[in-house]
Write a structure and sequence with these properties.
single chain, mainly alpha, 4 helices, 0% strand, elongated
Length: 102
């Protein structure tokens, strides 16, 4: 089971980011307006933390990939790097509207 969590770690971070940003925006809509600067900064801070987590996962998986010789373990590390890379790009893409003000 841990191997699956390792391989899907980046995608898990992406899913948590999606739910977190959605929750922040929903709470902001209830309390005030979702485009108020403090709420936008909270969303950006959360996005930055998720990008950092995805990059740490990608770096850790890349280091592990260089050390391993077993093909099945290398495949899992390759998937972990790929998933973390996709997650990083997706999180940045999802945070862009907040950065540009929409």
């Amino acid at each position: 089971m841990l191997r699956w969590v390792w391989m899907l770690g980046g995608l898990i971070v992406w899913a948590l980011h999606f739910m977190g940003v959605y929750g922040i925006a929903s709470l902001a809509d209830v309390v005030s307006r979702a485009d108020d600067p403090p709420w936008r900064m909270a969303g950006l801070a959360f996005s930055a933390a998720c990008v950092l987590a995805a990059l740490v996962l990608a770096g850790s998986a890349a280091r592990s990939l260089r050390r391993r010789r077993d093909p099945s373990a290398r495949f899992g590390d390759q998937l972990a790097v790929l998933g973390a890379g996709v997650a990083t790009l997706a999180i940045v893409w999802q945070a862009l509207p907040t950065v540009i003000g929409y």
